[in-house]
Amino acid sequence: MISSSSCTARSLPVLAALASLVGFSSAFAATIVATVPVGYIKYDLPAATTTPFGVPLDDTSAPLAGIRTGKIESFTVNTIANSTGGWTGNLAAPTAPWLVRITSGPSAGKTLDITSNTATTLTVSGADVTTLGLTAGTDTFELIPMDTLWSLFGNTLQGGASAGVADNVSVRTGVSWLVYFYDTNLGYWRRTIGPATNSNNVAIRPQSGVQILRRGAPLTLTFAGRVPATPFRAPVANASSTVIHAGFPTDTTLGGLATQTLLAGWRSNAVAASADQVSVHNGSAWVSYFHNGSFWQPVSGPATNSDTVAIGAGALLTIQRPGATAGSTDLVRLLPYPL
Amino acid sequence: MKSRLKLALSLIAALCAAPFASAQASVSIHNFSAFESPDTYFLSDWELTGDAGGTNSPRATFSQGGGFYNFVGGLNDDASMAFHFFTTPLNITGLTLLEVSAQTLAGNTAPTFTISLFDSLGESADATFATSAFSAPGFVTLHTALTFTGGFDATDVSSFKISGNVPGGTDTLNLAVNQVSIVAVPEPSTYGAIAALLLVGIVAWRRKRA
Fold it and tell me: What is the pTM assigned to this prediction?
């Protein structure tokens, strides 16, 4: 479907009730009810342009059955249990996968994939749960739905019989971008290269994002959701590149974000090749910067202080780390607003 | 005494092989004896005409060698890459190391290269190597731990990619590759058993000499 403005499948159920970011406390007589604010974020997709973005808002959907938040009563290397879970549905269905987010303790903000579940136990992957510093009976979790190509975009973007005429959506996975388009002949999302396989269920991880090459007329996408209420925690590869957004739906700058303070082992250096780098998209191209120990400066060109370079809400950052060290390290950003 | 030495050496050989006999020890990803094929795509600077979308045609400076493939003259940026799709998905369950046999070629300026595996839903497992580690004459075989995304399905590996993988990279990656495999991490007890048996062998050998 081609339109000048489009609400995605994810935004449709709640957008009508949202004119702008909604305040998080409401007073009813003598009772004060505090809720995490919800809102929406818009991205303009100019024609014939690639636009990168993330969605730093949580989907507010609830699982078909069972609790969405609760205490971690017990855990093992790869399970989290709550005796009142009530998860009788499949939380690992490829069409509607769920994540667990730890919401308290030293690993607050950590997300884990749910690989299977019973009514009271979630089996997870993505980290050894016993290494997260959890306290059984004290620390808490919440379930959040993971977006997929279909759940986030449906068929609202321009499809086509080939990648050359359809909008191309690059999805970040690990250290790579994989490119997909909606094949109107086959009626599903598929890779732009290789055999045609149904990719509707490709996951779009909440800490990362997509790049859309818009082939059609200019389009505005609107995504609704709840403002994050826990620290932002995203694994960053120790070598090669990782793409994340800034974690929260607020504008910031390179200096304000201070990535060099958010990732243990960050390499600031007077020489770009020896430093960790952050690339920011300026609307037409990615521009790389490194922290020289005093301020951010461009990798190319004069050593100008670039601390004021803007990073808009939902903008993507590419973090490039030299070397060949295996594994990843969590980048952690605390809430930039009070709740 | 000679038969005792033979027995000890036989035991060493048997016990060294034993840990790898029961579980799958390795899975070959590609042997690069015929890398160019309808299942292999080259993108951007690694494609014949620079097509960012990718085709089966490599840049003119790439070439097939006898049992290896020469990636020569291409940029190390993350848009330039070679993708290979398997006709049948591979199962690498239990294997966590990526092993590559490669040789850095003259003119290389790229500091690293990355090999990524993908399942059919695009989840990945990645390994990055320093090109300097492959600069000795001849092919060098090294392995490193794969870094997995959370939902990676080890039973459904459908494609892999080679790239310099540096955003905006302008260096030249000159590399010959002759084997990529996924291998197991030997158990610590395996190292212990091997060390103990080597000790037995050495003692037997020293007794024989004495």
Answer: 0.88
